[in-house]
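Re: the 161-residue chain
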Amino acid sequence: MGTSHNVMREDHSPDNVTKQAEMLVEKFKQLFHQLDASNCHTGLIDDVYRYDIRFEDSFHQIDGVAAFKDYCQSLYQNISFSSFKFHDQWVSRDSAMLTWTMHYAHPKLKWGKGIYVDGATHLRFDDKVYFHKDYFDGGSLLYEHVPVLGTVIQQLKKRLV
């Protein structure tokens, strides 16, 4: 008589893989609703990002979760507040694209008043995110709100229209 073995197997069906991807994207969005300077090194980032994360945006290229945590902590220490509103998202089994609007304030930009920036994020992942690239207009995020420089940029934009 044969021996019966109860073997637990992971469900890799297309529906389950898509659900896992959608759950990871939701964890990503929750992370950016919670993240601030006080919690960058508490494990929140580790729950979403792999140890070898590559992060890219208009100003940075960062490799590794430790460097990414340091970057986030430095970034959040220098702003008065930030929030994200996520709009559309497209999720596949190993990647996602999300559109968002960030609202933030920095004491040295736009006299400390709130700034809104639209952007998009491309993610690649397996069980965690290993690639994160943000797309946004660097001028609307930063340059246009720097005293004097912002006025020059606004004048240049008017000439181009």
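The beta strands are 49-56, 61-63, 81-91, 95-105, 115-125, 129-136.
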